[in-house]
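Chain entry —
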Amino acid sequence: MDNAQNTTSQPAPKKNKFKKFILIFLFSAAAIWFIYYFICGLAYSEGTRSGILTKVSKKGYIFKTYEGEMNVGGFSQGDGTIMPATIFKFSIPDKKVYDKLEADQGHKVVLHYKQVFKNFFWQGETDYFIHDVSVMK
């Protein structure tokens, strides 16, 4: 009779191990998602930059990303000299924004961006992500 009781009590540890595994897995998945969101989704800064749009392209071997460059322009030193032009490099996560930028290439534009702490390689080459664009007149 003791053997019959032992056989019924043995499946309980397997269920406990399975529950423990599920809890550890769910906790790990939640922690990874939180870290990913904190590093790659949370905005470090947001703002605008204006200049002449010089380049937009689709780049990458496996993970295709939309990238662009804008000439912010040189700045006057006040004594008649002008500092060289500054190039602002950015990534574009949305295809609609990319299409709009491609149509506005060569024009003076205002880019609305979000900067993240760090990006992963499949998101783009830069930490600056453009979410809206408007053409200056």
Observations:
- Residues 11-41 form the longest helix (31 residues).
- Residues 44-135 form a domain with the OB fold (Dihydrolipoamide Acetyltransferase, E2P) fold (CATH 2.40.50.140).
- The two ends are 92 Å apart (CA to CA).
- The CA atoms of residues 74 and 80 lie 12 Å apart.
